[in-house]
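Handout, page 2. Input:
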Amino acid sequence: MPNDTDARRGSMSEQVYDGLKADFFAFRLMPGDRFSEGEVATRLHASRTPVREALYRLQREGYVEVLFRSGWRVRPFDPQQLDELFELRLTIELAALEKLCSRPEMGTPLRALLRFHAHTTASERPGPDGQPDTCFHRALVTSAGNREMIRIHGEVTERLRLALTLGLSQCGDTSDRTTTHSDILSALLNRDTELARTRLTQHIRDAQRRVQEIFKTNDSRNSAEPPFQNESRWRARKY
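Output:
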């Protein structure tokens, strides 16, 4: 049976995990940045054990990697892997769309999508991690009713989330996202499966292009440093 010490350590590990993920998505720690367990422990007022537990959890999720005798590093983006994840995401969402359109009566799931779209359109802009865009696509896949599809799509979306957030932060206006969602829903309402497929594909390809632009921008700098790497940025920040 877990004792109080185990419970406190688990709670602290969760806090460290949440704190580091917040640093990733606020770009206080960028892909390629290096840091040590001691630095994390000092900044978050935690002991080494919960810090290590949080880091191993983040490693399993693909956010960080351990360096031999050199501490830890935020995992750099792999352009090929990101393209493959976008391909997988598109495949899943197109399959969900086909499944939704094939239903004799798709009124209930479609009404849920419409309510969701109306609510998120009122907020006008996505939040810091791509909301409500990501939530719209999650709702679309959920409406197909396949639990395994929903699970895998969630994992793919989470693995793309950091790159999508960085792409969103650099792309300026995002109004085209809401328009594309409207187009997808309009095609679904008209049971025009082919048009819905086209609109959905265009929308995901646009997100993929935004992420690809990150690498083009960094390649054009002709810098000797790896893209995004700046070990001093995080250490110099005050929390």
